[in-house]
């Protein structure tokens, strides 16, 4: 064995034998609940207690032995149906829906055993003995609540848990409830060998692949989908949660087990999955600053100013794009956040200003784990004001984290949150050119295996909320506080984090935790990010090249090629592996990485438009195939391909030695797919097709009917592309039409809120390209012009082009050239202003 292989071997061994602190279902409250109803009371609905209000119906659930009494409320606001089950009387404050619907509840029928109510097109039948609810949408049975009679609500201090079964009808697959290192389509967990999907944010170290174990983010939204029906459930709490899934014939059975004192959930069912997703999702959409969408470089850890500058310099010298360099805790003075190491980073302001000259940024780690050290101004303030999370005896909790002994900021205390935001003021944290990474914000507590390396559940938040009630939200509370803090110093904050929750702001990427340089880890990053995308966590990415371990050249370049098509594109590697920035590699590898990066940059207008459209329409950015082909059953389990918007299909190469590849192309005989790396060779969407590949790229297809807006001049930053002209790729469909959109603004401020933007539509029909403003009263004067137009499967014998702008005609515009096989036409040397509606006719 060579020295290198021995090194690698030791690393892998360390990795495989690394201690994980993962708990199984049986080791938590889940074990007993999973056996329910054994050991728990069962309930009847007392029909005499039923009351109906304008959009809801409420009643009492009485246990068979008469000892337990629960209050139950169901509320309609189509397309949503919410329900609450609790043992407290006043559930009004918990109403997750406001009644803005025009309809009102109608009591249709009542017998001695059931009550039927309707609300617009929604219907519920409430059964008394035993209690269950059938929900119908447009007269189709879509779900049954407590159909298996496994409802649990236990609120004694000794056992504080809830559980509920919900069965979805007319569906074949289930998705969502990320984050798990598993396939996109959820599996049956009730086979006797599998634990339920677990949602409990913690640092799971060397997690297993194809597993239901919990990682560092938790989003309690689950979707089910079938050929004619889609449904979803939002389980609105942020405590420890387990979810069992069982696939039945044309139905999916779910069982939610949660460490909360009440149940509050929202359901939705519609014929279209996109409709369900536009109302059931987590996180507020947010438009990222442009640089977020470029390429980022991180390692554990760039040691000092000179190293940062030399990384940037090497990217420049090698013509490799770069947006930001990331620094971990070691940029601080001994682990004290909001300070700088005086030797490594003696002049952070100068460094940031120097980077700003070429539109590069620094991203630094900030923790909520604050070093316990007298004289450190942040700690002194937080401890004097009692702003830390406390032990039950009232003392500040101290755990081990990156800086050593640390206490944890209690963001549930509004004054603590306010103080934290002031730390981002320019006086404290000098220079503007700085963005943050909330590393280990699950939060991580090292050497705390008994509590799975996170905060113990019994700790107390202000005023006296046990930590376990809000555990899964902790990471997001810091995110929200940081967002507020950064707003005081800059526009459009960029905040990366590992731990996200349903309250997320989409203010930066979901970083997938410490992955390994293996093909399996590359492969799993696609279903993981697709799953995040479904629930609306928009900017997901896994460390390109893997964090631990050493990738060989083939894996390395494949990862750069594939990673360019996930929303967040960053490489990050461990302290104990040799440096692996792309410029460290051979010219050959470097050329392939560069090509992948340039392809990413060429499509930045597409990414940015999709991010903006998400903020308005809640359409997702990356999408599994079934999102657009919901009736095509073969797409339901595909998670090694993705759609970027509706018009780009990516089939990344996730395995070694691939020379021909089977790619699933959806849509049927009339859907055309153009392979962009093979002279736009056209395929029909009739399922698995063989594509020949080499090491230079991964298969990417444009959909016939789409217009893709690109910027094709290679640049080293996203900022440098802003003034470059656009190229429109018009991909004609079988009826020779195509359409697309483009969003443009200043890429960094909130001036879009004052209507300073362009949202444009393009459509091609009858040999004419139309360009127009979709939002007429918005305008922006900084957009670059369209310079070139490429038409795939173009009309024949085009000899000239005429332009009509405001009824003024221009003839013989630009330069027309057909490719030698006449399958591509390029019109170049235009200078079309995007602000004016135009008609461009090919004659
Ligand atoms: C409801 O009424 C039917 C007949 O109308 C009767 O057979 C049944 O036992 C009743 N159920 C209950 C729970 O009283
Ligand atoms: C970070 O700093 C710690 C403490 O100073 C040191 O032990 C460690 O080696 C440093 N890590 C890197 C990657 O520089
Ligand atoms: C082709 O694209 C045009 C424009 O988007 C659309 O109107 C037309 O329906 C499409 N034809 C087919 C067969 O999809
Ligand atoms: C295009 O031009 C060629 C040669 O001038 C001619 O043979 C052909 O019929 C033309 N095709 C169309 C669609 O007009
Ligand atoms: C581009 O267009 C300009 C005028 O619009 C013309 O002067 C120039 O020669 C054209 N260049 C090419 C390469 O066709």
Automatic annotation (TrEMBL):
Keyword Endoplasmic reticulum: yes
Signal peptide coordinates: 1-21
Domain Glycoside hydrolase family 31 TIM barrel positions: 285-610
Keywords from the named record: Endoplasmic reticulum, Glycoprotein, Glycosidase, Hydrolase, Signal
Record's subcellular location: Endoplasmic reticulum
GO biological process: carbohydrate metabolic process; N-glycan processing
Pathway: Glycan metabolism; N-glycan metabolism
Superkingdom, taxonomy of origin: Eukaryota
Family named by the database record: Belongs to the glycosyl hydrolase 31 family.
Protein name: Glucosidase II subunit alpha
């Amino acid at each position: 064995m060579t020295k290198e292989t021995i090194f690698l071997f030791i690393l892998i061994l360390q990795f495989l034998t690394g201690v994980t602190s993962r708990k199984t279902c049986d080791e938590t409250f889940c074990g007993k609940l999973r056996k329910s109803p054994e050991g728990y009371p069962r309930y009847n609905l007392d029909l005499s207690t039923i009351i109906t209000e304008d959009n809801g119906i409420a009643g009492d659930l009485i246990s068979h032995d008469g000892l337990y009494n629960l209050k139950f409320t169901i509320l309609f606001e189509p397309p949503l149906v919410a329900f609450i089950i609790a043992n407290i009387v006043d559930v009004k404050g918990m109403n997750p829906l406001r009644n803005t619907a025009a309809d009102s509840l109608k009591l249709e029928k009542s017998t001695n055993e059931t009550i039927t109510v309707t609300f617009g097109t929604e219907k519920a039948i409430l059964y008394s003995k035993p209690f269950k609810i059938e929900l119908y949408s447009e007269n189709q049975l879509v779900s049954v609540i407590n159909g298996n009679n496994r409802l649990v609500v236990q609120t004694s201090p000794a056992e504080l848990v809830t559980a509920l079964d919900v069965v979805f009808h007319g569906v074949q697959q289930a998705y969502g409830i990320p984050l798990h290192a598993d396939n996109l389509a959820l599996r049956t967990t009730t086979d006797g060998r599998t634990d339920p999907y677990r949602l409990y944010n913690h640092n799971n170290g060397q997690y297993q692949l194809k597993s239901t174990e919990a990682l560092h983010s938790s989003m309690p939204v689950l979707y089910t989908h079938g050929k004619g029906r889609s449904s979803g459930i939002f389980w609105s709490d942020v405590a420890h949660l387990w979810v069992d899934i069982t696939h039945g014939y044309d139905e999916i059975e779910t069982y939610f087990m949660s460490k909360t004192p009440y149940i509050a959930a929202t359901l939705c069912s519609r014929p279209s999955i996109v409709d369900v997703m536009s109302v059931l999702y987590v996180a507020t959409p947010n438009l990222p600053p442009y640089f977020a969408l470029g390429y980022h470089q991180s390692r554990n850890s760039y040691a000092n100013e000179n190293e940062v500058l030399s990384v940037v310099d090497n990217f420049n010298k090698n013509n490799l794009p770069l947006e930001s360099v990331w620094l971990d805790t070691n940029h601080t003075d001994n682990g004290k956040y909001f300070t700088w190491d005086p030797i490594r980073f003696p002049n952070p302001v100068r460094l940031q200003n120097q980077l700003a000259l070429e539109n590069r940024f620094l991203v630094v780690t900030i923790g909520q784990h604050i070093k316990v050290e007298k004289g450190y101004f942040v700690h002194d303030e937080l401890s004097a004001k009692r702003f830390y999370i406390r032990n039950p005896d009232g003392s500040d909790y101290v755990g081990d984290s990156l800086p050593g002994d640390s206490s944890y900021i209690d963001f549930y205390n509004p004054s603590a949150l306010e103080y934290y935001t002031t730390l981002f003021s320019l006086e404290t944290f000098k220079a503007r050119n700085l963005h943050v990474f909330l590393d280990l914000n699950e939060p991580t507590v090292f050497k705390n295996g008994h509590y799975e390396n996170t905060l113990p559940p019994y700790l107390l938040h202000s005023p006296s909320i046990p930590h376990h009630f809000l555990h899964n939200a902790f990471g997001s509370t810091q995110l929200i506080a940081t967002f507020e803090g950064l707003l005081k110093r800059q526009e459009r904050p960029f905040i990366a984090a590992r731990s996200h929750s349903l309250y997320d702001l989409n203010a930066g990427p979901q970083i997938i935790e410490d992955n390994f340089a293996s093909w399996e880890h590359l492969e799993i990053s696609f279903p993981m990010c697709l799953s995040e995308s479904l629930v609306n966590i928009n900017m997901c990415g896994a460390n390109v090249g893997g964090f631990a371990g050493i990738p060989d050249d083939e894996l390395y370049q494949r990862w750069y090629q594939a990673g360019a098509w996930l929303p967040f594109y960053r490489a990050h590697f461990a302290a104990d592996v040799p440096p692996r920035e792309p410029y460290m590699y051979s010219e050959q590898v470097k050329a392939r990485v560069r090509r992948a990066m340039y392809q990413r940059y060429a499509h930045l207008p597409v990414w940015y438009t999709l991010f903006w459209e998400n903020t308005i329409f809640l359409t997702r950015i990356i999408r599994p195939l079934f999102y657009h082909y919901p009736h095509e059953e073969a797409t339901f389990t595909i998670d090694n391909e993705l759609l970027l918007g509706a018009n780009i299909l990516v089939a990344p190469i996730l395995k070694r030695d691939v020379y021909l590849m089977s790619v699933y192309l959806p849509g049927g005989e009339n859907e055309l797919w153009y392979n962009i790396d093979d002279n736009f060779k056209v395929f029909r969407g009739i399922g698995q097709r063989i594509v020949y590949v080499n090491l230079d790229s991964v298969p990417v297809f444009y959909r016939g009917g789409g217009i893709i807006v690109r910027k094709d001049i290679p640049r080293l930053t996203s900022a440098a592309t802003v003034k470059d002209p656009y190229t429109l790729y018009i991909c004609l469909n079988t009826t020779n039409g195509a359409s697309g959109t483009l969003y443009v603004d200043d890429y960094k401020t909130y001036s879009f809120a004052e209507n300073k933007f362009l949202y444009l539509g393009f459509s091609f029909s009858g040999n004419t390209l139309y360009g127009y403003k979709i939002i007429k009263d918005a305008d922006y004067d900084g957009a670059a012009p369209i310079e070139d137009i490429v038409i795939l499967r173009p009309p024949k014998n085009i000899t000239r082009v005429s332009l009509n702008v405001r009824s003024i005609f221009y003839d013989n515009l630009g330069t027309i050239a057909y490719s030698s096989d006449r399958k591509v036409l390029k019109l170049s040397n235009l200078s079309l202003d995007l602000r004016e509606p135009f008609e461009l006719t090919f004659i």
